[in-house]
Specification:
This protein is 78% helix and 0% strand. The protein is mainly α and 194 residues long. Keywords: Membrane, Transmembrane, Transmembrane helix.
Amino acid sequence: MNHRVAFIAAPLFTLAYGVIRIVDGFDGSRGPGLAWTVGHLAFLVALVMFAVTFKHMWQLAGRDKVTTVLAVTGITGIVAICLQFVIDIVVGFMSVDHAAMGVLFTRIQSVPGVSFAVYDVGPFLFYLGQLAVVVRLATMRRVKGWVPALVLVNMALPFVDKDLIPVGAVFLFVAFAHIAGQVNTTRPVPAPAR
């Protein structure tokens, strides 16, 4: 896959998810239904694109050990979020209404380790890894210093209000468009000879 496609698609599918999420809440609750499913599928596509961006940011950083650890951390978080969103989709299909979803979510999250790995801690590894890799690229002067700031704004806005996910995605789009250009014009540093 062309890396530029991933850098553009990841924030755009995140934007789509955020907008669909808002629309899904117009009736006072989110899920189950078409908007719930389509929104979650959109973010699953975004996560696949994010995994591709990690690969290319890792290459841009020179494939060193530190960036490898950071990228693996981020991809581990992607796996956790993918599991969360697959669970959400399945729960949506199995539920007749929003209340029934709540019952199923409670059952699933009561399974030992699930809440910790899939909901509480695992997903944060994605955001931590993404920010850390972008900061590393900035300290290596592979990307501009403002790029990590935009990535951080994208991460912070949903903590203020999840309805700000689309706004954050716009910031991420600007940051990723810049990184895509750098990946396109900068030769990755080869890995050290063994």
